[in-house]
Amino acid sequence: MCGIVGYLGHRQAVPIVVAGLKRLEYRGYDSVGIAMIGDGKVKAIKTAGKVAEIEALVAADRGAASVCIGHTRWATHGEPSDVNAHPHLDCHNHIAVIHNGIIENYSVLKKKLVDSGHFFRSSTDTEVLAHLIEELSRWSKGLEEAVRQALQQVQGTYGVVVISDREPDTLIAARHGSPLVIGHGEGEYYIASDASAIAEHTRRVSYLDDGELAVITRQGMRAKTLGDVETTKSIQELAFDLARIERGGYDHFMLKEIYEQPETIRDAMRGRLLAADGEVKLGGLEHVRDRLVGARRIILVGCGTSWHAALVGEYMIEHIAKSPVEVEYASEFRYRSPVLSANDVVFLISQSGETADTLAAMREAKSKGAAALGIVNVVGSTIARESEGGVYIHAGPEIGVASTKAFTSQLTVLALIALYLARARGISSEDCRVLAQELQSLPTKVSYLLQVSGRVKELASEFKDARNFLYLGRGANYPVALEGALKLKEVSYIHAEGYPAAEMKHGPIALIDENMPVVFLAPKDALYDKVVNNIHEVRARRGRIIAVANEDDREIEQIAEFVLRVPRTYGFFGPIINVIPLQLLAYYIAIARGVDVDQPRNLAKSVTVE
Ligand code: G6P
């Protein structure tokens, strides 16, 4: 959340930073700003609104500056406004700071600074950093020292970049809890909260670790701890397909990512699923295989859509591998003093690999001796680096704020883990082969489904003015109901609730009347008859029924007003297919309501604050 970009080198810095901000806009988009050093002075330009606003402001005067930092904001402290936009400056406009995270003790620090004469312009937590560095610069040897001392006084989280016109050829960056990646060019350096902002310029990157500070000049980069001890940073090669961060002819990233799913599901299985042999190879789990197989319990932890994936994973792993599974919200898990031991295995599920609560849950699990493993999309992200192993989902960059392809890839990886465990726990290769072949057929089925899903648009125009929606499912499709409701809320702003279909009788049934659309997940699996009974209960109360059902199901047409057809598959893999019409429904309803689906209000792609 919040995007950070910086450049120091020999080229015009402003266009590089603005282009980087455009790539990062999915991380936060309520206000935006840049600061450059030109003619020996710090010059900041900032505004409420999206990156396009700043593009217009700098169009006339891009300046010759070869040092620039930029920020796109997702507000925590202080409403989105010109003055609250980053960068924040000290009293005399010598120092500029961009920051991602939260300074928790900012009010105490601010009071002290105000008492000693500092003048604040904004109501953000970040501005204290600029003034604190200004204050400490009076007594310290230079910018690096002042930033170090300032950060030692700060409680909270930060990814921060600082420039000063007193040291115009230096960028100082530091990290505690919010990611920063440094790109190495020829006599030039890039810095960003996310590699997608700099991948077009360089593939050679180093990642800052928590508690590290980097001093970057044209001559090189030095990394140190906040205690001033030098650290060694290796340079890694970034594998990045730039085409994957372009819209490629689609109106929105969300739609493009929905349509990428045949490919991304295939990529999640590639080289891992040996369907003909009934085997699954997961290299990132091999060294913990015995712990995993013998685990007292497996705990799946995540937030948002990743938590929904965890819920489906629980059904898959318990049914297929017969291993005991629990699912936890990362934010609850970390503060609940969970009882953990070396006999427990915790999987952290996260698209970004940077979600603050999921990261903290990983550290909690590690500190208590449990094995902490990642199911992560972003290569090189903090969870990927700090976990003891795991499985990448390989979905490629997901830019749409509402997660779509990452969800189905997470489910695919969870299905692989279920098969891997089942095999290790003794199911025959023949039984595994049947399931593996079914899994292997999913990309083709999803591809077909996407070709025949024109009906969803019709449905979207019929229901675009609904005020509420209910999503109901049973078994492994209950989390799909939750995910369908979340997608609709996120992008269309219609209130929606997901529920286990049988639980409807214990409350939500009171809401049903002729204005309530109810989406039922009704594939022909073991629970089909039960779901049909629930459909009748809603029908009897004149609710409007939309059913997601298999193509060969004729019975459903008699009881549902609308039917969205999905190919049939093995019940526990069904969620990978059944969620797709719900993603499309949310997308087309949002479009019909005129919402910017890639940047819906108040949301951020990567939630790096608690
Ligand atoms: C945010 C995003 C969601 C995502 C959740 C968890 O809320 O908007 O789409 O599911 O964070 O993110 P993660 O990167 O950990 O999967």
Overview of the molecule:
This protein is of the alpha/beta class and 610 residues long. Strand 21, helix 13 (382-386) and strand 22 form a beta-alpha-beta unit. The protein starts with a strand and ends in an 18-residue tail after the last helix. It has 3 domains: 3-240, Aminohydrolase, N-terminal nucleophile (Ntn) domain (Glutamine Phosphoribosylpyrophosphate, subunit 1, domain 1), CATH 3.60.20.10; 246-440, Rossmann fold; 453-597, Rossmann fold (3-Layer(aba) Sandwich), CATH 3.40.50.10490. The model has no long low-confidence stretch (mean pLDDT 93). The strands form 5 sheets. It has an 8-stranded antiparallel beta sheet with strand order 3-2-4-1-10-9-11-15, with helices on one face. Strands 5-6-7-8-12-13-14 form a 7-stranded antiparallel beta sheet. Helices cover 36% and strands 24% of the residues. The structure holds 6-O-phosphono-alpha-D-glucopyranose. 6-O-phosphono-alpha-D-glucopyranose binds at residues 303-306, 350-352, 355, 358, 401-403, 603, 605-607.
